[in-house]
Structures are given as structure tokens and as C-alpha cells.
């Protein structure tokens, strides 16, 4: 799955992302907010257990909002923890990450690279490889020093001590 990553410290508030989104969808699904001279892009985070999806009485929300099913009640907007759902023409709107494009319009439009896209599966695999390499390094040259052996030995030692008490 791909996710849009936000780095507010890089955002200069130019609103190019908003314009690109508006050009594509008629209304921007990303908003730039300023707080203490720092600009924050507000965008749907595509939550796995999305409150907006859960609260929608017509099941109009998935990765995108189905405008045919949306009744414009606004409950999704109220429960979104990021404030990323907006009402436009009495219908909910939220970022869908431009599924028909190779790169979302906002990411492509951001000259400062405050918005970028990551592949969460690839990132997870990279972290797993790094973890395995680190654990392999722990046991280099010493039999029984891999993490499983260490945890098992510690558990056996604790059990032995408890039996002696």
C-alpha cells in the first residue's frame, strides 16, 4: 500500500498542492493550515480502521467517498482525527491518493518535497531485513547467542531460580 508522507518543516505554504488537487477534482482534498509560522498539509491518512468509514450511515466511505451514497450528514467530518474530510456541495470529500495516477497530483506539484509517497510494504520489508541483520550480528561467532536462544535461556534461568525459592 502506498501512503502520502507529510513533512511540515519543508512546506512553505505555496498551496501548489491544493491547486493541483482542485484542478483534478474540482475542489481541493488537501488543505494547508498555518500555526506559529509553520505550514501543515492536512490530508486523509487512509486509516486502516477509519472512524469516518465506521460512522457513515450509508457506507459511502472506503478509500474514496461514493457521492451517490453520501447523504451529506457530515458525521465523517466530525470524527476524522486529522480534520481531513471536508464537505463540498453537501457531499463529503477526502483524499483518495489519486488512484488513477502514478503519483498523486499534490505530491507531483510539491516543489519543496513536503509531500512524498512511500510504499508501506517495501518499508516494512526493509525494516525487517535491518532487524534480522542486527540480530545476526549479535550472534556472529557465538553459538546460542541469537535472540531466541537468549530469551529462552533467560526464561529457563528465571524458572530455575523460582523453583529454588
TrEMBL record:
- Signal peptide feature range: none
A molecular-function term among this protein's GO annotations: 4 iron, 4 sulfur cluster binding
Q: Pfam families, from UniProt?
A: Fer4, Fer4_6
Q: Does the keyword Transport apply?
A: yes
Q: Which UniProt keywords apply?
A: 4Fe-4S, Electron transport, Iron, Iron-sulfur, Metal-binding, Transport
Q: Which InterPro entries match?
A: 4Fe4S_Fe-S-bd, 4Fe4S_Fe_S_CS, RnfB_subfamily
Occurrences of domain 4Fe-4S ferredoxin-type (ranges):
2-33, 61-90
The answer to whether UniProt assigns keyword Acyltransferase to this entry is no
The name of this protein is Ferredoxin
Q: Which organism is it from?
A: Methanothermobacter thermautotrophicus
Amino acid at each position: 500500500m502506498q501512503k502520502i508522507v507529510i513533512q511540515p518543516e519543508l512546506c512553505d505554504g505555496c498551496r501548489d498542492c491544493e491547486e493541483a488537487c482542485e484542478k483534478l477534482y474540482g475542489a481541493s482534498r488537501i488543505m494547508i493550515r498555518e500555526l506559529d509560522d509553520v505550514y501543515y498539509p492536512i490530508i486523509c491518512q487512509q486509516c486502516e480502521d477509519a472512524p469516518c468509514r465506521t460512522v457513515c450511515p450509508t457506507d459511502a466511505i472506503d478509500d474514496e467517498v461514493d457521492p451517490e451514497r453520501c447523504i451529506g450528514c457530515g458525521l465523517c467530518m466530525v470524527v476524522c482525527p486529522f480534520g481531513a474530510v471536508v464537505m463540498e456541495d453537501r457531499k463529503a470529500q477526502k483524499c483518495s491518493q489519486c488512484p488513477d495516477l502514478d503519483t498523486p497530483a499534490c505530491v507531483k506539484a510539491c516543489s519543496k518535497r513536503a509531500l512524498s509517497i512511500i510504499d508501506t510494504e517495501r518499508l516494512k520489508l526493509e525494516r525487517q531485513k535491518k532487524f534480522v541483520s542486527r540480530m545476526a550480528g549479535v550472534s556472529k561467532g557465538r553459538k546460542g547467542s541469537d535472540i531466541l536462544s537468549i530469551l529462552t535461556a533467560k526464561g529457563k534461568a528465571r524458572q530455575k531460580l523460582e523453583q529454588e525459592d
